[in-house]
Specification:
By secondary structure, the chain is mainly alpha-helical. Helix content is 75%, strand content 3%. β1 and β2 form a beta hairpin.
């Protein structure tokens, strides 16, 4: 009888020992996993510094209040017919269809696209030519950079006021010179072509220095041995520009083209100050027409749909520009 009772007791002790061993193995595995995770945290600074994301929280909140919430408000307006703050009617995509079929909006889109194309055709070559002509060494480098950058320091509304007075045919120096020295009839307040030329010349004067500074930075990044080799080979100035400087400017010019297109396609302040969109609708670009609908007529529904379509058009054209330029660069 004592042998029978002794055998199960030994088996129970063996099972207890096995369970204790398994528990000890599990604890050892967990300890090894924790040590491995701590080692990964120490080896990867990104995981160790995850708390630093809390420093970005104010920026996220600021962007939410200044960009995301206003955008959602515009989306809300674009699908409603608002009669008063407490009286509104859901209309779905009606305003989008109305705006896309509006002949005045289509005409403003064509004018804006044409203006942006002319800006790029003028400012990019002029900016590159100015950058190539600027000195690379000596005391005149700083002087030239300051003089070139001066138009960029002037606010947009001040630029519009300057050109509004400068191009006046009666009191403006530029308008007086065109009429009396060149013998041409120039009056941007009455002639649509003169108004267009005035706005275009104003934008070229204001923003060509930006292209020049970007191109100049790209030229300064080219190592001197390239130019020394071209000089030894007897390459002309045009050959040096075509085979050395221009290929190195491809990335910088891509940025310049995108920046100038976006800014010229959304231009508002300068033509509004100079011509107010006139005479007639000659310089009424998309931004000016949008402000008339939203502020002048206070049609928040069509204005919301208009602004979203405007935003989408800018994104699509910029994407096409970027894709074409980068693939051409490859």
């Amino acid at each position: 009888m004592s042998e029978r009772t002794a055998a199960p007791a030994g088996q129970a002790d063996g099972r207890t020992d096995d369970q204790a061993d398994r528990r000890a193995d599990r604890r050892a595995e967990r300890r090894a996993e924790r040590q491995a995770e701590e080692g990964e945290r120490r080896a990867d600074p990104r995981r160790r510094n995850n708390r630093a994301w809390l420093l970005v929280l104010p920026v996220v909140v600021s962007v939410a209040f200044t960009a995301v919430i206003p955008l959602m408000t515009v989306v809300n307006f674009s699908v409603q017919d608002i009669f008063s703050p407490g009286d509104r009617l859901f209309v779905g995509l009606e305003w989008f269809r109305s705006v896309s079929r509006d002949p005045e909006v289509r005409a403003a889109f064509v004018r804006t696209l044409l203006f942006s194309a002319q800006v790029l055709l003028l400012e990019i070559p002029l900016g590159v030519l100015l950058a190539v002509s600027m000195p690379r060494r000596g005391v005149w480098v700083s002087v030239t950079l300051v003089l070139v950058a001066l138009p960029l320091l002037i606010p947009w509304n001040v630029v519009g006021t300057i050109w509004q007075i400068f191009a006046r045919p009666d009191i403006g120096l530029g308008g007086w010179a065109v009429n009396n020295v060149l013998g041409l009839e120039f009056n941007y307040t009455l002639d649509a072509t003169d108004a267009w030329i005035t706005v275009l010349a104003m934008d070229v004067w204001h923003w060509t220095p930006l292209v020049a500074l970007l191109a100049y930075a790209g030229l300064r990044s080219i190592p001197d041995p390239y130019f020394q080799a071209a000089q030894i080979d007897g390459a002309s100035a045009w050959a040096t520009f075509r085979h050395i400087q221009l290929p190195r400017l491809r990335g910088v010019l891509t940025i310049a083209i995108l920046l100038r297109f976006m800014d010229s396609f959304m231009i508002y302040t300068e033509p509004f100050v100079v011509t107010g969109g006139g005479p007639g609708n000659a310089t009424s670009f998309l931004s000016i027409l949008l402000s008339k609908i939203a502020v002048g007529q206070f049609d928040l529904g069509p204005a919301g749909a208009f602004s979203l379509l405007y935003f989408l058009a800018v994104q699509i054209v910029c994407y096409v520009f970027f894709t074409v330029l980068t693939r051409t660069g490859r």
